[in-house]
Amino acid sequence: MTRSTRQRERTREKDETEDQEGVRACPECESDNLVKDSDRGELICEDCGLVVEEEKIDPGPEWRAFNHQERQEKSRVGAPTTQTMHDKGLTTTIDWKDKDAYGRSISSKKRSQMHRLRKWQERIRTKDAGERNLQFALSEIDRMASALGVPRSVREVASVIYRRALKEDLIRGRSIEGVATSALYAACRKEGIPRSLEEISEVSRVERKEIGRTYRYISQELGLEMRPVDPKKYVPRFCSELELSEEVQTKANEIIEKTAEEGLLSGKSPTGYAAAAIYAASLLCNEKKTQREVADVAQVTEVTIRNRYQEQIEAMGIHG
User: Fold this and answer.
1) Domain match, 260 and 211 both
2) CA–CA distance, 320 with 312 (Å, rounded to integer)
3) Domain assignment present for 297
4) pTM of the model
5) What are phi and psi of 257, to 5 degrees?
6) What residues form the annotated binding site?
7) Where is the composition biased (Basic and acidic residues) (predicted)?
8) Is 181 found in the same domain as 155?
9) Angle at 15 between CA 13 and CA 17, to 5 degrees
10) Which residues participate in the annotated binding site for Zn(2+)?
11) Where would you tag: which of 1, 87, 244, 304 has the fewest CB atoms within 10 A of its CB?
């Protein structure tokens, strides 16, 4: 094959790939702000108004639904796969309603038969001890995530981290609850919804020290590149629990930004740092909260708040 033939072949493959992936940017203004108009079957550039593609095939369903109930009734597919279940949600479930396909009640003989089938279905969902342990760990992650009030994305990430730890045989010699809790703590940090070790240990069945030790081991072994937690991420939640205004929240973020620039944040606990900034902001905005109240919400000691507060007001040039 000659050089020119190879070049033509590569160009053709590139064009085919672009056709499959679809247009990424507007050919007129090179903007990537493209919007699909499903009614007209067009792809339009929102910046310059150019119709980039027309008569596009709609990959969605052929039916229309106007509420959730209609959508559920017309849908012909099941729930998407999820990492939060040991079998990824691909199992068969025998319904508990004891009714046939027409909604009629089944006979007592059939009911007892379905009860036995349901029981065996639950038993054979896990084929070995490894799967049973995974099922227990994922249910623990789900329980703790619900108690912490974190979104579903965090549960998915935690489940993936736990599965990776299981695959790398990092569970051996450690408790399942400890590794599951550490995976959830890591997922919270990964997704930018940080929870302190104290908050995590409150909903867990293991001690704070074990969670911290297991978390460090897992993050090192799996190469989880964790950035330091930004104290500003704690401010909205703490302010909400203390019933402080938007003004205090803005002032606390300003204090954190200015003092962090001077290197005060290095080596400090982000929760304690955020709590001290909120305490300082509440005083400056005349919405005073006691150190005890702030410490209870942030789950730090009053001494920590006093020390960080003193450092912050000195750095800001405020004389308290």
Assistant:
1) no
2) 11
3) yes
4) 0.65
5) -60, -50
6) 26, 29, 45, 48
7) 1-15
8) yes
9) 70
10) 26, 29, 45, 48
11) 1
